[in-house]
Design brief:
With about 400 residues, the chain is an alpha/beta fold. About 45% of the residues lie in helices and about 15% in strands. The protein contains 17 helices and 11 strands. The chain binds magnesium ion.
Length: about 400
Amino acid sequence: MRTGSNGCGLARGTGPRSHVQRAIDGLKKRVAILGSTGSIGRNCLDVLGGLGDEFEVVGLAARGSWQLLAQQSEQWHPRLVALCDAEHAGALRNSLNGTTGVLDGPEAMTTLIDECECDTVVCAVVGAAGLAATHRAVERGLRVALANKEAMVVAGALLVSLARERGALIIPIDSEHSAVFQAMQAGRPDEVRRVILTASGGPFREWTREQIAEATVADALNHPTWDMGPKISIDSATMMNKALEIIEARWMFGLEPENIEVIIHPESIVHSLVEFCDGSIIAQLGMPDMRIPIQYALTYPERRNCPSDRLDLTTLRQLTFEEPDEERFPALRLGREAACRGGSAGAVLNAANEAAVGLFREGKIRFAAISELVERALDGHHWLASPSLEDLMAADRWARDEVTQCATG
Ligand code: MG
């Protein structure tokens, strides 16, 4: 058992669980982390370590990193673990030696949500691969701490209406959306005039269009302010990440796309802003450390101390803001278009981008081709106004095939 204070000051026995200990366990929040071996998942476990006994990890899930999943399982003792890549499930089972139940295969994450008795699901899977599990968590009316922005981009309209129907609480982990979520608490939704999402500008903020077109994978992975996984780092370099975030904000906060703006803020200190109808702008500031939004998504509406470094305003020489350049970063325009069109457009933009980023990482296409291929897919797809989950998954598959054919055919 991890040590830590839950602040209630009750004594605990060391032998069989006392009635006091059982009462404390009953009050614990039970967390499942989908994508526990990735950057957000590891930060989430770090946060949970600091939060102590108030939380219990009951489920961990990863795509393929079975060795790290085994280590995490030995440390956190979840009831169940899930490994999507069934090939290594045997090795994981051997390593855990019967101490923890192991689910495997493509349905493993949704089964984990059904069976691990969690009340909070941290969705930190990368890409549309997290959609089915996110949908299940919402369907079960759980608290959903959402880092998997792609799920919201693909199926935001569906997820938000389902959450309302089932009483699920979707709380953003994405730093900009966490900032907006926090700033929104200063007024009522109908008092919001606009939301301003900040963007670091990525590694190519000062590059010319010609330089950007020929950027290498190593260039694109070299993010100036945030330490993140490879997919989101490349999305940050194309600024497709901000395109996805426009769509994410549109659904998560029920905003009209014309009321969502993007501003370049290279210091990554102001995480986003909300302007209210009286002209007041409320911003959230903090160190660029994902543990802050992760923790808030777990403890909301309360706040706890966080191991993050504190922001020292006196050492910040200046905070700068500039207009984004849609000529050099056409992804922004595509994101706005997809947000305005709604329906199946988000699914197509997202899947085309995931496929194109994959091809770029394999060295099969130029950097500039990522946005070009996404635009072709958006233009060519058969748009649906009110798609079902199955329609969205079909649109996703179509867009991936389309990008692969355009790039390699
Ligand atoms: Mg973000």
